[in-house]
Amino acid sequence: MSGRSLGAVDREIARLLTRGVSSSSPDHRDLWDAFAHAADGGKRFRPALLTATHGALGGVRDEAAVQVAAALELLHTAFVVQDDVIDGDPMRRGVPSLPGSFAREVRQRGASPAAARRYGDAAGILAGDLGLLAAFRAIARCEAPAPVIDRLLDLVESTVHDSAVGELADVRLQLDLRSEPQPDQTEQSGQTAQSGQPAQSGQSAQSGQPAQSGQSAQSAALRDALVVAEFKTAVYSFQFPLHAGALLADAEDATLAALDEIGSLLGIGFQLFDDLLGLFGEERRTGKSALGDLREGKRTALIAHATTTAQWRQLQPLLGRPDLDAEDARRARTLLTDSGSRAWTEELARWHLTSAVSSAIRHRLPAALVHALSTATDEILRTADLLLPSQPPSAPDSGADPADSSSADRTAEDTSPHLTPAYRASTHEIPAHRSPATTGSTS
Question: Three-class SS of residue 217?
Fold first, then answer.
């Protein structure tokens, strides 16, 4: 995004935030001021992607593009604030998060730690809701024709729904649930709760169906991690700005579908690198806790791959420990490197990012848009190379090459634990943002 466009987006964000201060209630002012502070700064890469897409496709609704780009930044801030509640993060990039700042304030005034955290979480949920409402309102009032606004509202609605699904799935993965519910402990041993008959060897106690094999379970874990990456990150950070910019430029449905595919690839690649930075990046440079994901036991694609390696027995006890210290974290990183999981995840991330540009070329998108996508991809790769410390060469061979062209034809049902480009547009399980004219649906 040019400096002029960036300035226009920043001014529009400031206008929206100033407009939101309309209540005389001190509590409302505190919530909105805290939200405005959370929205301050940042690289604005989502607005940049939206305005660049609009311009590259020959769009002439510059004012509307800036307005929707600013609304997207409010949407992003709302998601971030509520994500801090969900993850229980009192800090973000070295400073108190919005929930953390509210909790700290009442803690200093005598609230117990539990009560302070509850107060901070309530503030995060409510401030996020205010931000979501402001984003919706800004899009509804942007300077675009009514039919375009209708499609933009369909897009933002489906985006919020998909992102909510992604957040919940992300939390559920950390629970490490069994594939099926277990019989009530009061039932007789060896019998199912429903039939009372002994389960056959190799079958689940509940259904009598064959139990999921270790390899199948590992493949499902990887597939689930990539689903979360798409729902939680790709949909709103990449598919939304690409699709919205194209809608404002009156792009054809084929172009919209191609951009959904590209956004999925970009978003998954971005999230895979973000997961790596959460474990291997230097905290002082990334602003991300070097212990948080390990203590939480976050089930990313990196960890899903590690479950298929010989190092898993040593690594598993280190994950999900709230008292994990720096030395144990160092051991975990060494095991993830020695297992080949780090190298595999890096290669998978690069495959998704470079495939996004290849997809743009294959779909014969305008050269200016291909250039914008290449620039975005290069920026993600440069940031990863800058912030990820180098790793020893020659990690052990851990399975299929993520970039192996043969794996491009696999479907989501592939049982290989090294499932890689799992979510190409032709095979992934997450619906792209289709236009209502194409699908008859807003989801």
Answer: helix
